[in-house]
Amino acid sequence: GIQVEQSPPDLILQEGANSTLRCNFSDSVNNLQWFHQNPWGQLINLFYIPSGTKQNGRLSATTVATERYSLLYISSSQTTDSGVYFCAVVPFPSARQLTFGSGTQLTVLP
Amino acid sequence: GAVVSQHPSRVICKSGTSVKIECRSLDFQATTMFWYRQFPKQSLMLMATSNEGSKATYEQGVEKDKFLINHASLTLSTLTVTSAHPEDSSFYICSASRQGGGELFFGEGSRLTVL
Predict the structure, then answer these.
(1) Sign of the Cα pseudo-torsion (A16, A36, B88, B25, in order)
(2) What pLDDT, in 10s, does the model give residues B50-76?
(3) How near does any CA of chain B get to the CA of A103, in Å?
């Protein structure tokens, strides 16, 4: 099956710093989503981005489907950004179930 | 977006009992829902695909007789963990998407602890 690799596995930042999280995938995809898992376990949808670039406030994401990677940018990080960030993909041409990467644990220090 | 809700959020049970978890799509109809399991400090692993009006499709290594899935309506799927044991303790989370939509939305998750 498709392989989804995220880097770095852990990231510690000072509040106000910027960061880039990377997601590499091994095959063509129909769908790519970024999630933030909060301390209570809930998955918060950040971006639905099978290709192109999107921005939402301090967050933005870019997917280069032809090169099989996606990047999540967090600017001016806040302590509330702490948590695990997951990239998940639906491989082409299969059904709609997502395959998750192993996640990036982000800790933002005050 | 779309709202998916799970109940209960937490459940503690004794070994050998069965536990039912509900997943509801609140503002849309979902012919397909997905059930995932997450162990501590690990990623989410797909367990099964729930199809309205037909049998669920289970991933390799997931016991269909242990994890019973019923998708009786377009807004409700249930996961029943039968004869639960401590190794079944985990975080169970469901997801769904609007018909024709590609983006998947997740419920709040259900944390099961089997004593």
Answers:
(1) positive
(2) 988 889 999 999 999 999 999 989 999
(3) 7
